[in-house]
Amino acid sequence: MSEEASQYVQAVGLGLDPGWRHRSAEERAADGRELAAAEAETTASGVRTLTYSSVGLEPGVDLVLLRLAPTIDALEEAGARLARSGLGRWLVVRHSILGRISASQYVRKPTEQERSVLDGQPARYLIVYPFTKSAEWYLLSREARQGVMNEHMRVGRGYPTVRQLLAYSFGIDDGDFLVAYDTDDLAAFGELVRELRGTEGRRSTINDKPLLLGVRRSIDEFVALLG
Questions:
Q1: In the prediction, which pLDDT does 58 show?
Q2: pTM higher than 0.70 for the full model?
Q3: CATH for 78
């Protein structure tokens, strides 16, 4: 895939400086408006962003952003715009996970579950984590890996209420992959993960942290939650 055809995904976990809550109500409201305006400008620039609250859910993380952009440069500019805008000046990047969307070598015909987290209407909950495979996995034959992935995909397709986005992190981040799931049914997602733990593919996963969980909120809703 050429650079022109590439799309990049970034999942960002942001933590709020506790000192922000000591600002006046007027200052907090102004900070929220500035952040919303900055994100509107980012959207106008061609970067799509989904926003999620992790207030009280993730240690050190209050806001999760899932961004889709045509270039890494666009993600950099979006991050800089956020960092200099109102509430953004009080947010610290705790996690940043990067990936590039590319056709899967294991999927001949993607279903609606795949790649749809950033397509159409987002679900209520977002779960993001990077993962890395072992060296032994990459040394297996193509046929052996395809067999393992067939089992993995069969299990996943048994949970149609859980959608998935897969991006490749090779060369641009520490892990091998960025996976994002969204769903309105966290219990179903938990059952999916539990079932996947018992598949052959689990043997080759050597890291799948940090996991980020967020509840779908607009910037205005997020600011209102903070008070």
A1: 87
A2: yes
A3: 3.30.70.1030
